[in-house]
């Protein structure tokens, strides 16, 4: 039996951020991660400028800036034969106040390594097979050894995409045509202008692309189950290639950006993805990151929200104000989640997109304000600590 002040389940951005801050404050912290790092994930890879001060406080900003892609200074929309761009809002008070993109194999590893350097004990790769208010039972993925961990506080930061038997994991449910599946790949020699991050609108789905690390462009998307089934009936290529062909047929801007580009790695997929607000607490277990709530990837706020929720929870635990965590979480993230849902539903409906395109072409600054509403320059702060 191992005893700690805090036990964190999941070594992604939310879990590592919380573990790092708690360990730095002198708490004994255990972090359990089931997958060996580095690892790649289905993810848009973009971090908003709001995370720059947090990355500095965590002690990883210099490494992030060394590895990440160029500053994203323009927002865009590629829909049908329209390519609309506008300025990305800048974080006030910062000379470099724009977000950047970085692969999860780099981001997750640097955050987890920093948490370990601050004193967190990392159990990796270990699987959680039982989770309780006062701890968990874990099994080594290598040796099958079983161990019990106990803690005063338990944090579930294991994401939301995989159903399971833990009380904080989503349960399996019947398939729906509206279920979303995520796809992601990297491309080289892409013609996407540096500093531009466009939203891709196409029938039955939406996507995005951005210059990430090492000269790569990250292309990610979500598509409804019923739309995916329709484009797969013709057979032929893999699901990822079929989705790419569907997007290319729908977005002239995407076709131009990928003209001459080559895919660097295989397509990755995940799902179903079910964005929305879930819960910040299950009994005595606190939830952070996607386990607590998740925005549609259409606004590229997933990583930022995950890290910020880990920061928020750690601050409340250290201040002894954990009862306020739920209300502050909703204050910080609910508008982003609702705005993302509205944008995603609009982008997946061709008629709705065609109706709005003339307005966006006449007033591209609407894209700037949309990025602002989605949280791109909303400073993170707490009234309780």
- Kindly state the number of beta strands: 20
Q: Tally the helices: what do you get?
A: 11
What distance lies between the first and last C-alpha atoms, to the nearest angstrom? 33 Å
Proportion in helices: 25-40%
Q: Segments where pLDDT lies below 50 for 5+ residues?
A: none
- Averaged pLDDT, please? 94
SSE class: alpha+beta
- Work out the radius of gyration: 20 Å
Written description of the protein model:
The protein is α+β, with helices and mostly antiparallel strands and 385 residues long. It contains 11 helices and 20 strands. The protein has helices at residues 13-24, 52-58, 61-67, 104-117, 225-232, 239-250, 252-257, 302-319, 325-347, 350-362, 365-373, and strands at residues 2-9, 29-32, 46-47, 74-79, 82-87, 100-101, 121-123, 126-132, 135-140, 146-156, 180-188, 196-202, 205-211, 217-224, 262-263, 268-273, 276-277, 281-282, 285-287, 293-294. Strands 1, 2, 7, 8, 9, 10, 18 and 19 form an 8-stranded mixed beta sheet that branches. Strands 4, 5, 11, 12, 13, 14, 15 and 16 form an 8-stranded mixed beta sheet that branches. β18 (281-282) and β19 (285-287) form a beta hairpin. α1 runs parallel beside α4 (104-117) and α8 packs antiparallel against α9. It is globular and about 60 Å long. The mean pLDDT is 94.
